[in-house]
Amino acid sequence: MTFSKLLIYWYLQQKRDLPWRNTNNPYPIWLSEIMLQQTRVAQGLPYFERFMEAFPTVKDLADAPLEHVLKLWQGLGYYSRARNLHITAQKVAYEMEGVFPDTYIGLLELKGIGDYTASAIASICYNEPCPVVDGNVYRVLARYFGVDTPINTTAGVSCFKELATSVMEVKNIGIYNQAIMEFGAIQCKPQNPDCSTCVLNENCVALSTKKVSTLPVKLRKSKIKNRYFHYWVIKDLKGNTLLKQRLSKGIWQGLYEFPLYEVDGPVDMNHVLKEVQKEYPTVDRIYSFNDSPIIHKLSHQHLYTTFWVVPLQYELPEAISMQDINTYPVPVLIANFIDEILDY
């Protein structure tokens, strides 16, 4: 059998039973593809199920407040995807009468949908012969054909797109695309794949040349930036606190957080106290909730975070109840802290 037919044969026997595979409706397929970008199925599945329960149709998602969407997305990261999801839902629901474009080119016009997602939807829902190329596909193709062109370069993107196009199964493109993605996810895994049971092992270049652990090739990322966050957990006379919405572009846009003081490097409590006193002159003491900074790792930056409890001897009219802060969409770093302080 050919490469593509072997993958389809394997897929029909080994595929996982996932809810978005039981339909050709583009809405749940689009939703799953957006969620599963850089997210494992085990992590993304509960989110998918909650979204489908809250927003059964694209119109339901379009009608929902953005804060509700962000709250349900909380913990998945890459919050720009959730914002784009909401924008696209509104465009489809309000400008396209709830009907998704039925071509690769048409899908690319929607916010947050790139080459991979457009190819997946067009092939699975409309049987358009578009190859998908995601992390799993890069790995399968690089290993099987022995391609060492770095996948995160312009040359690599072009090379693998051409290769994916040349080997795809046109007549069963939807099944084939799901097959190669699934194969990369559960058989041709990044670390320690079981090559002895692989249906492709007879002709796999990486296996025969002992390069399974070194393919695909990916150039080193840019240097990680360290940032130093000091959150002020205000507690007024009634025990209420403050949350502020992050409006600037960048990480966590639209989410809520405690008042933030960011510095260029490590500082001590006296330094932070002086900054607090500029805003709240009557405060004479603060104390840290965590003894050492919490290191929250994002793709290109590490956040060294300390939460400072700031007691006030008066009420703040704009403060919110500690019990209500769980209703706001917040970054997972803040959510984890909230869970701890409510149990404290």
TrEMBL record:
Cofactor binding description: Binds 1 [4Fe-4S] cluster.
UniProt keyword Transferase, yes or no: no
SMART domains: ENDO3c
Keywords of the record: 4Fe-4S, DNA damage, DNA repair, Glycosidase, Hydrolase, Iron, Iron-sulfur, Metal-binding
Top-level class of the enzyme under EC nomenclature: hydrolase
Catalytic activities: Hydrolyzes free adenine bases from 7,8-dihydro-8-oxoguanine:adenine mismatched double-stranded DNA, leaving an apurinic site
GO molecular function: 4 iron, 4 sulfur cluster binding; 8-oxo-7,8-dihydroguanine DNA N-glycosylase activity; adenine/guanine mispair binding; metal ion binding; oxidized purine DNA binding; purine-specific mismatch base pair DNA N-glycosylase activity
E.C. number: 3.2.2.31
Cofactor: [4Fe-4S] cluster
Domain HhH-GPD positions: 35-186
GO terms classed as biological process: base-excision repair; mismatch repair
UniProt family annotation: Belongs to the Nth/MutY family.
Described function: Adenine glycosylase active on G-A mispairs. MutY also corrects error-prone DNA synthesis past GO lesions which are due to the oxidatively damaged form of guanine: 7,8-dihydro-8-oxoguanine (8-oxo-dGTP).
Protein name: Adenine DNA glycosylase
Organism: Imtechella halotolerans K1
